[in-house]
Amino acid sequence: MILVSACLLGIDCKYNGSSNDNAKVKEYLKNKAFVIACPEQLGGLTTPRNPSEIVKCDKDGIINENYKIISNKNVDVTENFIKGANETLKIAKIYNCKEAILKDGSPSCGSNFIYDGSFTGNKVIGEGVTTKLLRDNNIKVISEKDL
Ligand code: SF4
Predict the structure, then answer these.
(1) For the whole model, what pTM was predicted?
(2) How does pLDDT run across 13-24, given as a tens digit for each residue?
(3) Mutation test of ligand 1: which of 35, 46, 54, 108 has the most ligand atoms closer than 8 Å to its C-beta?
(4) Which top-rank group of organisms is this from (predicted)?
(5) Complex ipTM above 0.95?
């Protein structure tokens, strides 16, 4: 069973109320068993919502114990992101997912890069909160670009 970011399949759960509908992902998933989740919605955030970024990563974008996640309106949404990650892990365990395809760049779902917390569009190598938790639980996470 494969866990997939809901926005990649056309669900309008992205921060701006749209999706990241991805034909390559849909094609890949044909005849495969999968389950979808949106960690940020599962964490209690609204859709639409203000975009958020991880701040206080180390220089390589690795989340450390001092990180927090803030919106572009300077609201601390760290607890929402942690809750969303934990709820997503529950889904992965219920469905016995061994791998996941998550949307890259997201502070929840990113697996190769995230934004650097400056809200200037700068990317850094790193992973989102949900991706880190899934990987810590031995679930392989790739992005839509890795297919
Ligand atoms: Fe939800 Fe992840 Fe897609 Fe963001 S990238 S909308 S958290 S599924």
Answers:
(1) 0.95
(2) 999 999 999 999
(3) 108
(4) Bacteria
(5) yes
